[in-house]
Amino acid sequence: MPGQTEAARRLELRWLGLLPFAVFSVLFLILPTLYIVIGAFQTPQGGFTFQNILDLNTPSIRSAYWVSIKVSFASALLGCLIGFAMAAAITIGGLPKRIREPLLTFSGVASNFAGVPLAFAFIATIGPAGLITLQLKSELGINLRAMGWNLLSTPGLVITYLFFQIPLMILIITPALDGLKKEWREAAAILGASGRQYWIMVGLPILFPSLLGTLALLFANAFGAVATAIALTGPSLNIAPILLYAQIRGDVLGNPHLGYALAFGMIVITGIANAIYIRLRARSERWLK
């Protein structure tokens, strides 16, 4: 029938708009992931084996994973705390509304600012010969290096990661804070609850799934950050992304399939963290609707 044919043609054209995204996802996400997963369970001769996964249980690889987990968790936790405080200030904290839009715009840009440019910015600012490092030493007599500060270290990497972790937290938690209904606070006040009691018994329990889910997302975001860590610390810090990068260059791990297993382990960890985020976000949205 003509009407049905026309409707079917419009539907096909709508789906056609998704074709570039589908092609991009298959070529640069799904196929590479499958290649890594298959390679993690292959021998150099192409046979099936679990040995590559078992070989991850070596001191150097265990240490790399553990340092990566610590860096990712520390940056995620600090990013959540600082980002939540900033988001609360612009939503329910009474700050002028003119501050909100510039902060959210900056957060949208900063949350995607990573890799070599971010590493260079921090090295040029608070690195061993950075602008602030030299100014503090010459103007105030404060020697950061003598005090133990080293940007090219685990704490330095955590602070660098905060540059994109905090903005990401602001972007994600701001809608959740906007979803807190004024009627809930008014009802709590009518029943005699103080502001502290409202947050302990109403506000934070409702936001808890969002907070925990965002913590998981920030953890995955930091755990998979490769370019920033490599550009900032090079091979001096033993974390999983740098170990994987060294394997890709052929510097370590004589068995390339062990490198696939290392990447597979990173995929599993980030996948679990993202699954937790998706699950908790869906639960939080049910409360805030």
CATH fold naming of the largest domain: MetI-like fold
CATH superfamily of the largest domain: MetI-like
Beta strand %: under 5%
Shape: globular
CATH architecture of the largest domain: Orthogonal Bundle
State the low-pLDDT regions, or none: none
Gyration radius (Cα, Å) is 24 Å
Largest sheet: none
> Which structural class is indicated by helix and strand composition?
mainly alpha
Can you walk through the features of this model?
With about 290 residues, this protein is mainly alpha-helical. It folds into two domains: about 1-40, no CATH class; about 60-289, MetI-like fold. The radius of gyration is 24 Å and the shape is globular. The protein has 13 helices and no strands. The model has no long low-confidence stretch (mean pLDDT about 85).
In short:
This protein has helices at residues 2-16, 19-40, 51-54, 59-91, 97-110, 116-126, 131-140, 154-178, 182-190, 195-223, 227-233, 240-249, 256-288. With 289 residues, the protein is mainly alpha-helical.
